[in-house]
Specification:
Layout lengths: L17 E3 L23 E5 L3 E6 L7 E4 L2 E6 L4 E6 L7 H4 L2 E2 L2 E2 L2 E2 L2 H14 L13 E4 L6 H14 L4 E5 L1 H8 L7 E6 L4 E7 L2 E2 L5 E3 L3 H15 L9 H11 L6 H7 L3 H7 L1 E4 L14 H46 L5 H10 L5 H24 L10 H4 L12 H47 L1 H28 L6 H15 L7 H8 L21 H7 L1 H24 L9 H4 L8 H7 L5 H7 L4 H5 L2 H7 L1 E4 L1 H8 L14 H12 L9 H6 L2 E5 L7 H12 L8 E3 L6 H10 L9 E2 H7 L16
Parallel strand pairs: 1-16, 2-10, 10-11, 12-18, 18-19
Antiparallel strand pairs: 2-3, 3-4, 5-6, 5-7, 8-9, 11-20, 12-13, 13-14, 13-15, 16-17
Helix pairs in contact: 4-28, 5-6, 9-11, 13-14, 14-18, 15-17, 25-27
Family: Belongs to the actin family.
InterPro entries: Actin, ATPase_NBD
Pfam families: Actin
């Protein structure tokens, strides 16, 4: 194969940065620490997140224990014990991952036994001790917005009756985070994003205005699930199984909030933009190529001999089957010939009745069957003779066919029959000799033509190449013309399609008085049929069969195939001898698609050409391509482009994810402009809230979140209205920091529900403190 002339001109593609697909690393997690400075009566703050728990005494600046809210119940068959593994310890052993469970169903708790196990685990790592059998620390705990009565009731029962805590207070994580980042008396609009939901809560003088709070049923859990579905649709046959941890890491590491989603979506698959936006993620795969043992010449010779023997065996089996069929056909011929002779004295009507009794439809059917048998026997005999060795000894006509030259009047009846067989055999031998001679002449002509071509190339290669290219251009032009004609057949209004319909109509009108010349000729030759059936006149003229070719486009398809074969032959010669003709110059390569203009290609494979097509152009076999290390790696790669902005956009357009709800910006606009009075004067409530828009929660870590909120708010706020959007210092830990700050302030003094109040008022009783849910009783 000659080197490609376009190699220097071909655009050089720098390799893309490949990111590894992250999973939970087994064995790398450190054991959960134990707190060494436990004190009784100090409030314990528990951020009871559906994805992560954060637990610690409020006299510490940071939570002591941060662990995922998962649990695994493992049965140790040797020790005959059931072990309860919680948090990071679940990921310390691969055997535990398959039994990992969570006590939540969405934002609500559904398995209170698991919650009790996890609370025991938390208190144990806090070093809790007691001399009275009770937990002597007040509890501050987060709960979901609009928490159900049943969940709060169950949590009261667990804390007051199982642990006998002195007092309990519940609050919302987003409001605690706002409290941690302000002086506790601020007014603002809090946008809280959690694992199961997103909330927009107005805060007036440090207290949440829960009557105007709004919740969107979309959070981090739904985002990773939605991303998983998108990737399953994008790569339906992806070899590796993506779990929730994979998609969560992909979402957190590579997704971002678009400042102008619709505008960016229009151009994200443009080559210049896709180069920066496309992220390649590689799933783990073993691409080591196993070294193939090179076989010796003796082993290769044995394999070749084995294949030849197998081929001979198959040929012999095929010959035996053909011989069996020939014998069966000969027996049928002999039987029905004798059958015809035995009934020769019958009249045609009587003989036809006998034939019907023998299973034939009529006399014409019998004649057709006998003619078919005769043709089959002649073809089989001819084929058997043609399969014989061409190197047989020359046959002497005088000894091999002695009766051929003797007149019939000098022969007996038996000798005449034998003479016919000898004449047939002689004709077959002579035909075989003629075929051998024609084949030899064709080979000599081909060799002579190749010799002339070689001399031509050696004498003037440029002239030979130019002539071949002109011939190739003519063939391609002819191919396109025929292809265009074939395509026009699909348009029933085209001239070609109209002519085809006319031919079909002429065939249909033959039996109803067609006056065409072909029809008249068939009627004149009505008796010139194989079985002399006057009702079957089709086929007596060879031109009759052309009608089928005209109405079925068979001639066009055959011509296209022939031209394409000639094109491939000329291209093969040019590829072999012309140093300036390459695979990209071939007719097939010219008709291949431009991947840069294929939206589907860029969406799935990113801004790089498909190396499979390049390998096919190099002539590699399908097996070599499928097992090539680069192809194996490519098959285990994920390209993130549109998904990077589509998944986070659901926070602003929930209809994309199938939610019949308003997005963050729409809710904020409704609150500031209508529900909160819409007063944007200096002393107005909406004015104050626009100056303090606060974002917290895990999704606040997405790049571009703050800029999108600023852009959307600026779009509906009155001109000149001051606006400030801020993100929590630590969106993940600030709820716990706010609980710790609140517990150590006077704001929490009257916000606890004591054991005595619980026993007196029941589980439906709560105390409002401005950072939690409101009492609706």
């Amino acid at each position: 194969m000659s080197p490609s002339k376009r190699e220097p001109e071909r655009e050089k593609w720098e390799p893309q940065t490949v990111h590894l697909l992250k999973d939970v690393t087994i064995g790398s997690n450190k054991p959960e620490p134990f707190y060494q400075h436990y004190q009784a009566n100090i409030p314990i703050a528990i951020d009871l997140g559906t994805s992560t728990w954060r637990v610690g005494l409020t006299n510490s600046p940071e939570p002591n224990n941060v662990f995922p809210g998962v649990i695994s119940r493992h049965r140790d068959r040797k020790a005959m014990k059931t072990l309860t593994i919680i948090g990071n310890d679940v990921y310390s052993d691969p055997a535990l991952k398959s039994t990992t469970k969570t006590p939540y169903d969405g934002p609500l708790i559904t398995n209170w036994d698991y919650i009790e196990f996890m609370l025991d685990y938390s208190f144990e790592h806090l070093g809790v001790t007691s001399d009275n059998g009770r937990l002597n620390n007040p509890i501050i705990m987060t709960e979901p917005i609009t928490c159900t009565f049943n969940q709060r009731k169950s949590m009261y029962e667990l804390l007051f009756e199982a642990y006998q805590v002195p007092k309990v207070s519940f609050g919302l994580d987003s409001l605690f985070s706002f409290y941690a980042n302000t002086d506790g008396k601020s007014t603002g609009l809090v946008i809280g994003t959690s694992n199961e939901s997103t909330s927009v809560i107005p805060v007036v003088d440090g207290k949440g205005l829960m009557t105007q709070a709004k919740r969107i049923d979309w959070g981090g859990s739904q985002s990773q699930s939605y991303l998983s579905k998108l990737l399953s649709l994008k790569y339906p046959y992806f070899p590796s199984k993506l779990n929730a941890t994979h998609t969560t890491n992909l979402f957190q590491d590579f997704c971002y909030v678009s400042e102008d989603y619709h505008e960016e979506l229009k151009h994200i698959l443009d080559m210049d933009i896709l180069e920066d936006k496309d992220i390649v993620v590689q799933a783990p795969v073993d691409v080591t190529v196993k070294a193939e043992t090179k076989k010796s010449d003796e082993e290769l010779a044995k394999q070749a001999e084995k294949r030849r023997e197998q081929g001979k065996r198959l040929q012999k089996q095929a010959q035996e089957k053909r011989a069996e069929k020939l014998i069966q056909k000969q027996e049928e011929w002999d039987y029905y010939t004798k059958f015809k002779q035995d009934n020769a004295d019958l009249s045609p009507e009587e003989f036809e009745n006998v034939l019907i009794g023998a299973g034939f439809e009529d006399l014409a059917d019998f004649k057709k069957y006998m003619a078919s048998l005769e043709r089959t026997l002649k073809r089989a005999a001819s084929s058997e003779e043609n399969l014989e060795d061409d190197g047989e000894d020359e046959v002497d006509a005088a000894t091999a066919w002695p009766l051929v030259g003797i007149p019939d009047d000098q022969l007996t009846e038996e000798q005449i029959k034998e003479k016919r067989k000898q004449k047939l055999h002689k004709a077959n031998v002579e035909a075989r000799e003629r075929n051998r001679e024609l084949k030899r002449q064709e080979e000599e002509a081909k060799a002579q033509l190749e010799k002339k071509e070689q001399e031509w190339r050696e004498r003037d290669l440029d002239d030979w190449c130019q002539t071949k290219k002109l011939h190739l251009a003519e063939l391609i032009s002819k191919y396109k013309e025929r292809q265009k004609l074939l395509e026009s057949m699909k348009d029933r209004k085209s001239a070609a399609a109209q002519q085809r319909m006319k031919n079909i109509a002429d065939l249909a009108n033959d039996e109803t008085g067609s006056t065409s010349a072909a029809s008249r000729k068939r009627r004149r030759n009505a008796n010139a049929t194989i079985d002399n059936d006057p009702n079957d006149t089709f086929g007596t003229n060879d031109d009759d069969w052309n009608a089928y070719r005209e109405i079925s486009n068979q001639s066009l398809e055959e011509e296209l195939e022939k031209i394409n074969k000639n094109i491939l032959q000329v291209e093969e010669e040019l590829l072999k001898y012309d140093p300036n003709f390459h695979h990209e110059d071939t007719f097939a390569a010219a008709n291949s698609f431009d991947w840069k203009n294929s939206v589907l290609h860029k969406f799935i494979h990113g801004p790089r050409p498909n190396i499979t097509i390049a390998m096919q152009a190099e002539g590699l076999s399908p097996d070599e391509i499928a097992n090539h290390p680069e192809i194996v790696k490519k098959n285990h790669q994920i390209h993130l482009n549109v998904e990077r902005i589509r998944v986070p956009e659901i926070l602003f357009q929930p209809t994309i994810g199938g939610l019949d709800q308003a997005g963050i910006s729409e809710i904020s606009s409704d609150l500031l402009r209508r529900r909160l009075g819409g007063d944007f004067s200096i002393e107005g409530l909406s004015y104050k809230m626009a100056q303090n828009v606060f974002i917290t929660g895990g999704l606040a870590l997405l790049p571009g979140f703050k800029g999108r909120i600023e852009r959307d708010l600026r779009g509906f706020l009155p001109t000149g209205t001051p606006m400030n959007v801020s993100i929590a210092k630590d969106p993940l830990l600030d709820p716990w920091h706010g609980m710790s700050k609140w517990a150590n302030s006077q704001d929490s003094k009257d916000a606890y529900v004591s054991l005595a109040e619980y026993e007196e008022y029941g589980p439906e009783y709560i105390k409002e403190h401005g950072l939690g849910n409101a009492c609706i009783l």
